[in-house]
TrEMBL record:
It holds the Pfam family Thymidylate_kin. Its EC number is 2.7.4.9. GO terms for cellular component: cytosol. HAMAP family: Thymidylate_kinase. This is Thymidylate kinase. Keywords: ATP-binding, Kinase, Nucleotide biosynthesis, Nucleotide-binding, Transferase. PANTHER family: THYMIDYLATE KINASE, UMP-CMP KINASE 2, MITOCHONDRIAL. Residues 10-204 form the Thymidylate kinase-like domain. ATP binds at residues 12-19. It comes from the Bacteria. It catalyses: dTMP + ATP = dTDP + ADP. GO terms for molecular function: ATP binding; dTMP kinase activity. Phosphorylation of dTMP to form dTDP in both de novo and salvage pathways of dTTP synthesis.
Length: 217
């Protein structure tokens, strides 16, 4: 195994099972004796989590400008990379992250309509070439994911955040943008059909992870 850790991201729209499977992926890797750091974006450090609150706050007294939204996402990312992700990878830990820059291309690009080349400029500025080693894109039809999300919101007594309040066409655009990215980079991004019982989803995740563990050895 190389001395640098590996960077694995989970992606997909609301309710596809990212948080559920993040914990499972981390446990799967720890069972194989790896040091694993579990984290999420936007957020992952106290200051980056404060930026997350700004991004998710549904207060409608002041609409958030789309470019301001994009820059906040990358500001949180810069802080998270500097404080958590890069130090962990450097010491040989594996980092498993709930969302990363593919989400920016999907939400701020596909959803908000910001040109991909502008996002790519910020990506290279902030990431300096760092990319996930493996991205697990959980994909399913939006309507089914929305039903799951409603189940979760019902149990949490949770109010919808600024993104969860978006309309169906926003989420369709997010899904299309995710799938387009996967088609452009099929070696890094594995599309997993998330509209199946959890056991089947995790059996596929297990296969994908074990293949990578084998090929990275
Ligand atoms: N494969 C699955 N089948 C049925 N329900 C699922 C599955 N995966 C996740 N869920 C449930 O769907 C809801 C949303 O999952 P969650 O992991 O919170 O999604 P995300 O983090 O992508 O928004 C949760 O209530 C979770 O228990
Ligand atoms: Mg989640």
């Amino acid at each position: 195994m190389s001395s640098r850790g590996r960077f694995i991201t989970l992606e997909g729209g609301e309710g596809v099972g990212k948080s559920t499977n993040l914990a499972w992926v981390a446990d799967h890797l720890m069972d194989r004796g790896l040091e694993v750091v579990r984290t999420r974006e936007p957020g992952g450090t106290p200051r980056a989590e404060a930026i997350r609150q700004l991004l998710l706050d549904p207060a409608d007294d002041e609409p958030l400008d789309v470019d301001a939204e994009l820059l906040l996402v990358f500001a949180a990312r810069a802080q998270h990379l500097a404080r958590v992700v890069c130090p962990a990878l450097a010491r040989g830990a594996w980092v498993v992250c709930d969302r990363f820059t593919d989400a920016t291309f999907a939400y701020q690009g596909g959803g908000r309509g910001i040109p991909a080349r502008r996002i790519a400029e910020l990506e290279s500025f902030v990431q300096q070439g760092l990319q996930p080693d493996l991205t697990l894109l959980l994909d399913m039809p939006m309507e089914a994911a929305q039903r799951r999300l409603e189940g979760r919101l019902g149990r949490d007594g949770g109010a919808r955040d600024r993104f969860e309040r978006e309309r169906g066409e926003f989420f369709q655009a997010v899904r299309r943008a995710y799938l387009a990215r996967a088609a452009e980079d099929p070696h890094r991004i594995a599309v997993v059909d998330a509209d199946r019982p959890l056991g089947q989803v995790q059996a596929e995740l297990s296969r994908l992870l074990d293949n990578c563990l084998e090929s990275w050895r």
